[in-house]
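Support request from a user on the community tier.

User writes: "When I paste my C-alpha coordinates into the form, the page sometimes reloads and wipes my input. The last time it worked, I copied everything first. Here is what I submitted, just in case something in the input itself triggers the reload:"
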Protein backbone atom coordinates (compact mmCIF):
# COMPACT_ATOMS: atom_id res chain seq x y z
CA UNK A 1 0.00 0.00 0.00
CA UNK A 2 0.99 3.60 -0.56
CA UNK A 3 3.02 4.82 2.47
CA UNK A 4 1.13 8.17 2.43
CA UNK A 5 -2.08 6.28 3.05
CA UNK A 6 -3.49 6.31 6.56
CA UNK A 7 -4.24 2.65 7.18
CA UNK A 8 -5.42 0.32 9.92
CA UNK A 9 -3.94 -3.13 10.37
CA UNK A 10 -6.45 -5.97 10.05
CA UNK A 11 -6.30 -9.08 12.24
CA UNK A 12 -4.81 -11.10 9.35
CA UNK A 13 -1.85 -8.72 8.84
CA UNK A 14 -3.21 -6.88 5.78
CA UNK A 15 -3.79 -3.10 5.89
CA UNK A 16 -6.93 -1.16 4.98
CA UNK A 17 -6.96 2.57 4.14
CA UNK A 18 -9.09 4.30 6.78
CA UNK A 19 -10.91 6.37 4.13
CA UNK A 20 -12.80 4.51 1.40
CA UNK A 21 -14.77 5.48 -1.69
CA UNK A 22 -18.33 4.08 -1.85
CA UNK A 23 -19.51 3.22 -5.37
CA UNK A 24 -23.23 2.53 -4.87
CA UNK A 25 -25.59 4.65 -6.95
CA UNK A 26 -29.39 4.47 -7.38
CA UNK A 27 -30.70 2.68 -10.50
CA UNK A 28 -31.45 5.91 -12.36
CA UNK A 29 -27.74 6.86 -12.41
CA UNK A 30 -26.17 5.55 -15.67
CA UNK A 31 -23.60 2.79 -15.07
CA UNK A 32 -21.04 4.73 -17.14
CA UNK A 33 -20.90 7.26 -14.31
CA UNK A 34 -19.44 4.63 -11.98
CA UNK A 35 -16.49 4.38 -14.38
CA UNK A 36 -15.97 8.16 -14.46
CA UNK A 37 -16.28 8.85 -10.74
CA UNK A 38 -14.15 5.87 -9.69
CA UNK A 39 -11.35 7.00 -12.02
CA UNK A 40 -11.70 10.50 -10.58
CA UNK A 41 -11.64 9.20 -6.98
CA UNK A 42 -8.38 7.35 -7.68
CA UNK A 43 -6.95 10.49 -9.32
CA UNK A 44 -7.62 12.60 -6.21
CA UNK A 45 -6.09 10.00 -3.89
CA UNK A 46 -8.69 7.41 -2.85
CA UNK A 47 -7.06 3.97 -2.62
CA UNK A 48 -9.85 2.02 -0.93
CA UNK A 49 -12.79 1.26 -3.22
CA UNK A 50 -15.96 -0.33 -1.81
CA UNK A 51 -18.32 -2.11 -4.19
CA UNK A 52 -20.61 -5.17 -4.32
CA UNK A 53 -22.36 -7.59 -6.65
CA UNK A 54 -25.65 -6.01 -5.53
CA UNK A 55 -24.62 -2.61 -6.97
CA UNK A 56 -24.54 -4.08 -10.50
CA UNK A 57 -21.60 -1.87 -11.49
CA UNK A 58 -18.53 -4.02 -10.80
CA UNK A 59 -17.73 -4.12 -14.50
CA UNK A 60 -17.42 -0.31 -14.64
CA UNK A 61 -15.61 -0.01 -11.30
CA UNK A 62 -13.14 -2.72 -12.37
CA UNK A 63 -12.60 -0.91 -15.65
CA UNK A 64 -11.81 2.29 -13.74
CA UNK A 65 -9.25 0.51 -11.54
CA UNK A 66 -7.64 -1.20 -14.52
CA UNK A 67 -7.42 2.04 -16.52
CA UNK A 68 -5.69 3.79 -13.58
CA UNK A 69 -3.22 0.88 -13.37
CA UNK A 70 -2.67 1.00 -17.14
CA UNK A 71 -1.91 4.74 -17.15
CA UNK A 72 0.56 4.39 -14.28
CA UNK A 73 -1.46 6.31 -11.65
CA UNK A 74 -1.45 3.26 -9.32
CA UNK A 75 -0.26 -0.31 -9.12
CA UNK A 76 -2.73 -3.09 -8.28
CA UNK A 77 -1.22 -3.44 -4.80
CA UNK A 78 -1.90 0.26 -4.08
CA UNK A 79 -5.64 -0.36 -4.39
CA UNK A 80 -7.74 -1.95 -1.65
CA UNK A 81 -10.87 -3.30 -3.35
CA UNK A 82 -13.88 -4.71 -1.47
CA UNK A 83 -16.66 -6.82 -2.96
CA UNK A 84 -19.63 -8.40 -1.21
CA UNK A 85 -21.41 -11.76 -1.34
CA UNK A 86 -25.12 -11.13 -1.88
CA UNK A 87 -27.89 -12.86 0.10
CA UNK A 88 -28.98 -15.14 -2.77
CA UNK A 89 -25.52 -16.83 -2.71
CA UNK A 90 -25.12 -17.67 0.99
CA UNK A 91 -25.35 -21.45 0.52
CA UNK A 92 -21.74 -22.67 0.79
CA UNK A 93 -21.66 -24.16 -2.72
CA UNK A 94 -22.49 -20.77 -4.26
CA UNK A 95 -19.86 -18.68 -2.45
CA UNK A 96 -16.78 -19.26 -4.59
CA UNK A 97 -18.71 -19.13 -7.89
CA UNK A 98 -20.21 -15.78 -6.78
CA UNK A 99 -16.75 -14.38 -6.03
CA UNK A 100 -15.43 -15.75 -9.33
CA UNK A 101 -18.28 -13.98 -11.13
CA UNK A 102 -17.37 -10.69 -9.45
CA UNK A 103 -13.72 -11.19 -10.41
CA UNK A 104 -14.73 -11.91 -13.99
CA UNK A 105 -16.83 -8.72 -14.12
CA UNK A 106 -13.97 -6.75 -12.57
CA UNK A 107 -11.30 -8.50 -14.66
CA UNK A 108 -9.15 -8.69 -11.54
CA UNK A 109 -7.30 -11.72 -10.14
CA UNK A 110 -8.27 -11.14 -6.52
CA UNK A 111 -10.23 -8.82 -4.24
CA UNK A 112 -8.59 -7.37 -1.15
CA UNK A 113 -11.70 -7.98 0.93
CA UNK A 114 -14.75 -10.18 0.40
CA UNK A 115 -17.59 -9.81 2.87
CA UNK A 116 -21.01 -11.33 3.51
CA UNK A 117 -23.25 -8.39 2.51
CA UNK A 118 -26.20 -9.20 4.76
CA UNK A 119 -26.83 -12.11 7.17
CA UNK A 120 -30.35 -12.97 5.93
CA UNK A 121 -30.37 -15.51 3.09
CA UNK A 122 -32.74 -15.16 0.14
CA UNK A 123 -33.86 -17.79 -2.37
CA UNK A 124 -30.91 -18.74 -4.61
CA UNK A 125 -30.99 -17.68 -8.24
CA UNK A 126 -30.23 -14.80 -10.55
CA UNK A 127 -32.90 -12.48 -9.12
CA UNK A 128 -31.39 -10.22 -6.48
CA UNK A 129 -34.71 -9.82 -4.64
CA UNK A 130 -36.76 -12.98 -5.27
CA UNK A 131 -40.45 -12.36 -4.54
CA UNK A 132 -43.53 -14.58 -4.53
CA UNK A 133 -46.76 -13.74 -6.42
CA UNK A 134 -47.81 -11.44 -3.54
CA UNK A 135 -44.60 -9.43 -3.78
CA UNK A 136 -43.19 -10.90 -0.56
CA UNK A 137 -39.48 -11.76 -0.34
CA UNK A 138 -38.68 -15.47 -0.59
CA UNK A 139 -36.29 -16.40 2.21
CA UNK A 140 -33.74 -19.18 2.36
CA UNK A 141 -32.35 -20.89 5.46
CA UNK A 142 -28.58 -21.10 5.62
CA UNK A 143 -26.19 -21.74 8.50
CA UNK A 144 -23.86 -18.73 8.33
CA UNK A 145 -21.06 -20.81 9.84
CA UNK A 146 -21.08 -22.94 6.66
CA UNK A 147 -21.08 -19.78 4.54
CA UNK A 148 -18.10 -18.56 6.54
CA UNK A 149 -16.18 -21.81 5.92
CA UNK A 150 -16.70 -21.26 2.18
CA UNK A 151 -15.25 -17.74 2.53
CA UNK A 152 -12.24 -19.18 4.35
CA UNK A 153 -11.67 -21.44 1.32
CA UNK A 154 -11.77 -18.37 -0.96
CA UNK A 155 -9.03 -16.79 1.15
CA UNK A 156 -6.96 -19.98 1.02
CA UNK A 157 -7.41 -20.09 -2.77
CA UNK A 158 -6.01 -16.54 -3.04
CA UNK A 159 -9.23 -15.12 -4.51
CA UNK A 160 -9.67 -12.79 -1.51
CA UNK A 161 -6.80 -11.46 0.62
CA UNK A 162 -9.11 -10.84 3.58
CA UNK A 163 -12.64 -11.89 4.52
CA UNK A 164 -15.27 -10.24 6.69
CA UNK A 165 -18.95 -9.54 7.26
CA UNK A 166 -21.45 -6.71 6.97
CA UNK A 167 -24.67 -5.84 8.83
CA UNK A 168 -24.03 -8.51 11.49
CA UNK A 169 -25.17 -7.93 15.05
CA UNK A 170 -23.18 -9.04 18.10
CA UNK A 171 -24.88 -12.47 18.34
CA UNK A 172 -24.24 -13.18 14.67
CA UNK A 173 -20.57 -12.22 15.05
CA UNK A 174 -20.26 -14.38 18.16
CA UNK A 175 -21.70 -17.34 16.27
CA UNK A 176 -18.77 -17.16 13.84
CA UNK A 177 -16.14 -16.28 16.46
CA UNK A 178 -17.20 -19.26 18.58
CA UNK A 179 -17.43 -21.70 15.66
CA UNK A 180 -15.48 -24.92 16.31
CA UNK A 181 -12.52 -25.13 13.94
CA UNK A 182 -12.61 -21.44 13.00
CA UNK A 183 -9.65 -20.81 10.68
CA UNK A 184 -9.89 -17.03 10.14
CA UNK A 185 -11.75 -14.41 12.14
CA UNK A 186 -13.73 -11.82 10.20
CA UNK A 187 -11.40 -8.83 9.71
CA UNK A 188 -14.30 -6.37 9.70
CA UNK A 189 -17.99 -5.73 10.18
CA UNK A 190 -19.33 -3.10 7.79
CA UNK A 191 -22.42 -1.43 9.23
CA UNK A 192 -24.46 1.75 8.99
CA UNK A 193 -22.72 4.19 11.31
CA UNK A 194 -22.99 7.97 11.72
CA UNK A 195 -23.53 10.50 14.56
CA UNK A 196 -27.24 9.58 14.84
CA UNK A 197 -26.40 5.82 15.02
CA UNK A 198 -22.89 5.74 16.39
CA UNK A 199 -22.80 2.00 17.15
CA UNK A 200 -20.66 2.54 20.25
CA UNK A 201 -21.58 -0.83 21.81
CA UNK A 202 -20.96 -2.75 18.60
CA UNK A 203 -17.71 -0.80 18.10
CA UNK A 204 -16.49 -1.76 21.59
CA UNK A 205 -17.41 -5.39 20.96
CA UNK A 206 -15.60 -5.40 17.61
CA UNK A 207 -12.50 -3.72 19.03
CA UNK A 208 -12.36 -6.25 21.86
CA UNK A 209 -12.26 -9.01 19.22
CA UNK A 210 -9.76 -7.25 16.93
CA UNK A 211 -12.44 -6.69 14.27
CA UNK A 212 -12.46 -3.37 12.42
CA UNK A 213 -15.76 -1.52 12.14
CA UNK A 214 -16.37 -0.07 8.66
CA UNK A 215 -18.97 2.70 8.45
CA UNK A 216 -21.40 3.05 5.56
CA UNK A 217 -24.08 5.74 5.47
CA UNK A 218 -21.54 7.86 7.34
CA UNK A 219 -23.08 11.05 5.92
CA UNK A 220 -26.63 10.01 6.80
CA UNK A 221 -28.18 8.75 3.59
CA UNK A 222 -29.12 9.52 0.07
CA UNK A 223 -32.92 9.57 0.14
CA UNK A 224 -33.42 6.27 -1.67
CA UNK A 225 -37.14 5.60 -1.96
CA UNK A 226 -37.10 1.82 -1.34
CA UNK A 227 -34.30 1.72 1.17
CA UNK A 228 -34.54 4.69 3.47
CA UNK A 229 -37.03 5.82 6.07
CA UNK A 230 -37.92 9.30 4.71
CA UNK A 231 -39.29 10.71 7.98
CA UNK A 232 -35.85 10.92 9.60
CA UNK A 233 -33.90 14.17 10.07
CA UNK A 234 -31.15 15.05 7.58
CA UNK A 235 -27.83 14.40 9.35
CA UNK A 236 -25.81 17.03 7.47
CA UNK A 237 -28.24 19.76 8.55
CA UNK A 238 -27.67 19.00 12.24
CA UNK A 239 -26.96 22.25 14.16
CA UNK A 240 -24.19 20.69 16.29
CA UNK A 241 -22.36 19.32 13.23
CA UNK A 242 -22.84 22.63 11.41
CA UNK A 243 -21.42 24.62 14.36
CA UNK A 244 -18.34 22.38 14.59
CA UNK A 245 -17.93 22.61 10.81
CA UNK A 246 -18.03 26.40 10.95
CA UNK A 247 -15.46 26.48 13.74
CA UNK A 248 -13.01 24.33 11.72
CA UNK A 249 -13.91 26.00 8.40
CA UNK A 250 -14.89 22.57 7.05
CA UNK A 251 -18.17 21.11 5.76
CA UNK A 252 -20.56 19.11 8.00
CA UNK A 253 -19.78 16.06 5.80
CA UNK A 254 -16.08 16.33 6.61
CA UNK A 255 -16.87 16.58 10.33
CA UNK A 256 -19.00 13.41 10.13
CA UNK A 257 -16.21 11.54 8.29
CA UNK A 258 -13.45 12.78 10.59
CA UNK A 259 -15.49 11.75 13.65
CA UNK A 260 -15.33 8.11 12.51
CA UNK A 261 -11.62 8.18 11.73
CA UNK A 262 -10.79 9.45 15.21
CA UNK A 263 -12.80 6.57 16.74
CA UNK A 264 -10.68 4.06 14.80
CA UNK A 265 -13.53 3.35 12.38
CA UNK A 266 -12.84 2.88 8.66
CA UNK A 267 -15.19 5.26 6.89
CA UNK A 268 -16.73 5.11 3.40
CA UNK A 269 -17.50 8.37 1.64
CA UNK A 270 -20.08 7.87 -1.09
CA UNK A 271 -20.52 10.62 -3.66
CA UNK A 272 -20.95 10.87 -7.42
CA UNK A 273 -20.22 14.62 -7.34
CA UNK A 274 -16.60 15.37 -8.35
CA UNK A 275 -16.33 18.53 -6.26
CA UNK A 276 -17.43 16.63 -3.15
CA UNK A 277 -15.30 13.56 -3.93
CA UNK A 278 -12.24 15.82 -4.01
CA UNK A 279 -13.39 17.70 -0.91
CA UNK A 280 -13.83 14.45 1.05
CA UNK A 281 -10.07 13.81 0.81
CA UNK A 282 -9.54 16.85 3.08
CA UNK A 283 -10.71 14.74 6.02
CA UNK A 284 -7.05 13.75 6.40
CA UNK A 285 -5.97 17.38 6.89
CA UNK A 286 -7.55 18.47 10.19
CA UNK A 287 -8.41 17.15 13.64
CA UNK A 288 -11.42 17.35 15.95
CA UNK A 289 -10.86 18.22 19.61
CA UNK A 290 -11.96 15.88 22.44
CA UNK A 291 -14.79 18.40 23.11
CA UNK A 292 -15.92 18.15 19.47
CA UNK A 293 -15.90 14.35 19.69
CA UNK A 294 -17.93 14.45 22.91
CA UNK A 295 -20.48 16.82 21.38
CA UNK A 296 -20.88 14.54 18.35
CA UNK A 297 -21.18 11.47 20.60
CA UNK A 298 -24.11 13.28 22.20
CA UNK A 299 -26.07 13.24 18.93
CA UNK A 300 -26.59 9.47 19.03
CA UNK A 301 -30.32 8.78 18.81
CA UNK A 302 -30.49 5.34 17.19
CA UNK A 303 -31.75 6.66 13.87
CA UNK A 304 -31.29 3.83 11.37
CA UNK A 305 -31.81 5.11 7.82
CA UNK A 306 -31.30 1.71 6.18
CA UNK A 307 -33.69 -0.41 8.25
CA UNK A 308 -34.49 -2.89 5.43
CA UNK A 309 -37.94 -3.52 6.90
CA UNK A 310 -38.95 -5.55 3.83
CA UNK A 311 -37.03 -8.49 5.32
CA UNK A 312 -37.63 -7.72 8.99
CA UNK A 313 -39.52 -10.99 9.52
CA UNK A 314 -36.52 -13.06 8.38
CA UNK A 315 -35.16 -15.19 11.28
CA UNK A 316 -31.67 -13.76 10.60
CA UNK A 317 -32.80 -10.10 10.31
CA UNK A 318 -30.01 -8.38 12.27
CA UNK A 319 -31.64 -5.23 13.63
CA UNK A 320 -34.09 -6.71 16.14
CA UNK A 321 -31.31 -6.94 18.71
CA UNK A 322 -30.05 -3.90 20.63
CA UNK A 323 -26.69 -4.24 18.82
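"...and here is what came back when it finally went through:"
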Amino acid sequence: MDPKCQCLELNDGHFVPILGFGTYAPEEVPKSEALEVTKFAIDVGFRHIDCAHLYQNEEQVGQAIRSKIADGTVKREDIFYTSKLWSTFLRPEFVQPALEKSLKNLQLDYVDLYIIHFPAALKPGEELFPKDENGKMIFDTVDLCRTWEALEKCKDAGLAKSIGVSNFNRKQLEKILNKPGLKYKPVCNQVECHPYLNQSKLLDFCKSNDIVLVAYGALGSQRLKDWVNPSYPVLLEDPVLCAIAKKHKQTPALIALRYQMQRGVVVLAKSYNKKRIKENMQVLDFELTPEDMKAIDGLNSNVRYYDLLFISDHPDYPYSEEY
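Agent notes: The reload is a front-end session timeout and is unrelated to the input. The longest strand covers residues 160-166. The mean pLDDT is 95. Escalated to web team.
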